[in-house]
Give the backbone structure.
Amino acid sequence: MRFEVLTLFPEMFSGPLDQSILKRAQDADLVEIALHQLRDWATDKHQTVDDYPFGGGPGMVMKPDPLFGAVEAIQLLAEPPAEVVLLTPQGRRLDTALVHELAAAPRLLLICGRYEGVDERVREHLVDREVSVGDVVVSGGELPAMLLIDAVARRIPGVLGADDALREESFDEQLLEYPQYTRPAEFRGWSVPEVLVSGHHANVATWRRQQRLLRTRARRPDLLERADLSDEERRWLESAPTPRDALDADERRRLD
Ligand code: 9D3
């Protein structure tokens, strides 16, 4: 899969994308990431890419002509035509379903916005999709684009090791993970739950499933509505109180 990134800050991408899994994927030619400096397509001698908003108001708007020129030129650099994705706070929220859809494209062109936004004609006539990474304001589309690339690349066959690829299924299952422990069995007086050191595999499996259910109800009840639970599990959950350790640290503190 080939990612084209159009940005005013291509240097932001070296580092995060050149580590670990993404580095291996690029070295193995499973993933290709091409960075493009938007300013190279500015049409005036000052290389201007932004301008004042018609009608007035705060901030600057990204001009349409550098963006159109850049996207049209980048499209000619490779085949097939890339799906053009604008990273914007107004976009569809990125989640597993959207990551799956994006991973089906052979080529994505990610436009990273800066300033207050882009000229509306870019959205209307140049962009195929608009994606947000959630209801939080960040300074531009670059970090969201890196997050998207990382999440999408993980879905490409061969990018993850076989074990990791299998374990990826668990978030799609819509339940949070069970608590995990490693050695030592006692650390500063805090012990690992007895069942995990018992060697009784069926009891371990039951405990882990119950922990996932309790945790998901306590922290992400929205996920539980869509989760695939058996009738028995639903009944068990109704009678089970939420233990304090299923809560996150912030909620535990509120109870103190
Ligand atoms: C004052 C209104 N702001 C919108 C909430 C303006 C604004 C803030 C930040 C416009 C652009 C930006 C830069 N952010 C992005 O380009 C961005 C983003 C984000 O801020 N949050 C979540 N996902 C994304 S994807 C791109």
